[in-house]
Every structure is written in structure tokens, then in C-alpha cells.
From TrEMBL:
InterPro entries, per the entry: Ankyrin_rpt, Ankyrin_rpt-contain_sf, Multifunctional_ANK_Repeat
UniProt-recorded name of the protein: Ankyrin repeat-containing domain protein
ANK repeats (start-end): 332-364
Alphabetically ordered keywords of this record: ANK repeat, Repeat
Cell membrane in keyword set: no
PANTHER family associated with the record: ANKYRIN REPEAT-CONTAINING, PROTEIN HOS4
Highest taxon, organism lineage: Eukaryota
Amino acid sequence: MELLGLPTEIFQDILHQAIVARGIKRGVRLRLVNNVMQALYTFRLLDSVHSLYDKRRPPRLSKAVLISYIGHRVMHEPANGNPLLNCLRRLAEDIHDRQNVDDRELSTVETCLDKLCSPWAVSWTFSPLKLFEKILKRESKVNEDEYRNHLFAAGLCTNNLSIVQQYMLDKDNLRDDNLLFGRYNTLAARYSGKEVLEYLLTTGVPTVNRTLRIGLFLDASEAGRADIVRFLYNFKREEVPWDFNRLKPNGYYSSEANILYMALNTPSLEVATFLGELRRRCPIRDEGKIDGMTVQLRVYRSIEAGHLDTLTYLINLGAHAQGVTHHGPNARGNDPIRIASKLGHTAIVEFLLAHGADAQAAITIAVEYGHTELVQKLLQMGLTPIDTLSNAAAGGYLDIVRLLLDAGADANESIGPMEHTAIFNLLIERGADLHSKGTTEECIERAWKDGLESMLVLLKEHGVDVKDTGST
């Protein structure tokens, strides 16, 4: 039987024992080509990451990896283990037991947990790594009052009206923060349906909670939920009209007066178009606020969300494809192309390049983050890779290393200490010279210093005397 044919539990235990036996340092360095093995290695190593990294320079781990890891820990935490991990599992189980019968997205405890993790992936300001640290440092048990708060937040995330109704009366302020999920009103605007929103807006008030309606409208706009934005705008509008020009007694505009300006922070073209219609119907006195920086912020949001249609609309409005701050165009170093390349949005990268964005920044970052399709597209456009091979090799991206070599990258470019035999062989095949002055000594020194056994074997196979001279 092949290794991957073993039951998951046995396979995972084998990997766990292998890492324990060979050491964390080597496990971090080792580049594995199998995705399943890579994920399990990553999960095991993350158990200690909070104590290993320099707080001033945290590790560059994607939100997806950390969220996946937290989910893995939640489902495998012992009953007497971490209180918050067990709390998350209990929440997922409660949501599953009280789900709507026809909700296929919540058909298992695991899918319920995935849904509960959704808020961690979308917020610009939220850091899963910081949440991870808070969770792991928690020692005290989760009491029932705290659990009810978490369950209310979970009900908003999963659009569960019965849970929201059961625990709503305990909430004095929906703008309060929940430790695990963030603000309650933001959760409602992003994930709850119209029935839940109607309940929130009308509970404890004669007609409608006007302040809450404003907050939900803004958060739904930022989330790009066009149907919910329209619903909130029209909700009891006849009884409680919107007043977009209302001034406070001190002469400053109220939150409602600023709402059409603030709501422009949306990645959705449909929402942006709807807001434009409202602005034409409801003239706003403070027109000067719709400045270049506001439009540019929307550029970043539309790129992060992968909305090319919205980006096209904004560029046509005059936004800069190179980025802009109060210092002028390009002052932030090509932020739009960097964001798009980091996320692997190929169509958006092509669009930005056509509007003057920095091509070298695009290929450098695409290589660094392992986006093979994007790298291939950029090379086909005639871009010349400069000092990118080391990043591709350091990431273990064999396909990208091959693409860069095909495009003329120097196989002798330094790639740092690692242990990826396939990349090693490819570099030798493409002309890397192990016997050039200084190269042999450096290879041997690094291999012995970092315990790269497979590299020592390969060096020996290519005629290198790998005896440890003790120089390290």
C-alpha cells in the first residue's frame, strides 16, 4: 500500500512522528511537493509558531493557511484541552443541530465550522495570527454567559433566526466586539438574511432602529451585498425617511448625512452604481469629500475582492493604476499591482499593466507567492525575470523555477539553503556549476550546518567531496 493510501489518522501520525524525530527546524526548511504532506507539516509546525517568531516580524503566513489550521485544531482538540478551541467546536455542533433543514452549506459540523471561520478571511484589519495567539494563551474556561455571546455571533454568521431571537435581548449594543468573530452589527450586515436583519432593526423600538440601519447599510456596502444594501435602504423608508443632508446642532454633518460618501468603500460595481443613483436623487452638500483618495481606496478593495468590472469603472473615473497617496501618483510603490499579483488575479494584473503599472513588480511578487499561471502569462508578455529565481526556489515552486530558466534566468543565481532535490537536479541540468570558485565550499558548509542530508548525497553524486571540515 502506498503512503497516501493509508487511513488519514495513521498517515497523519506517521508525519507527526517524523517531524518530532527530525526536528522542527528541518521541518520548517523542508520543501515537500505533495500538497497533503505540506499541509500536515504546516499544521504541526504551527503548534509552536506563536513562540518561535519575532513579534516585530511575524511569519508571512496566509490567512487561508492559518484559518485552515485553526479549523484542524478545533476538530482534533481533546475535551480537556484549549477552552476556546473546544468552544468553537461546541458552537459548530450547536449550529449544526439547529440548522435550517434545507441548508446544504451546514450539512456537517465541519461545514458549520468553515462558515464560522468566514469572518476571519474577509476583514482587512483582522489578523488570524493574533487571534491564534489569543486562543492558545487562553487558560480559563468559557462560562455560559460568554458562550451565549459567542453563540449569538455564530447565529448571525450562519443566518440562524431562532438563535438570534433567543439571545438578542441580552445585547445592549450591537456595535460591541465579540472576541472570536468581531462586531455583531458587521456580522449581521455581511452574513445575515433579510428576515434576521428585519428582526434586529425592529426589536425594542417603535418603528426602526435608525442608527443600526445606518451601520448595517455601510457594512453591507463594504461587503458588496447589493441586494442587502437595497433592502436596508428601502426598509421602512416611508415611516423613517433617510436624511442625507441632516446637520447636527454643532454644525457638523451627522452619520446619516455622510453615509453616501462613506458607503463608497465597496468592491461591488452594482453597489457603487446604486450609490451613484442615490447621490443624483439626493444632492449632498459636502461634495468635496469625494476625492482621489476615496476612489483609490475603492481600487484596493476591488482588487482584493477580484472585481475587474469595478476596477475598470474606477480607472475610468480617474483612479491611478499605479496607486496614489497625498504625495501623488505611485507614491506607495505600485500598491494596486502588488496586491493583484500577491493574490494571483491574472486578469486584473493584465488590466493594470495595460494602464501603466510596473511589470517588474508584478512578476517579482507573482513568483514570490507561487502563482504559476500568472508568472507564465507575464513571461508570455515578454517580461524579463530579474533576480526572481531565488524566490521561486526558496518557495519550492518547481514549475516556476522551470519557467524562469526557460525564460533565461541564470541557473547559478544564489538560491539559499533549502532541501528540494527536484529543484537541485533541475538547476544542475540547466547549467548550474557546482565546481565554480566558492560554490563547492558554500554548498558543503550550508549542507552540514543545516543538516541537509539529501543535499549532501546529491553533492556527492556530482563528484563533490562532502567531508565535514569542521569550518562551521
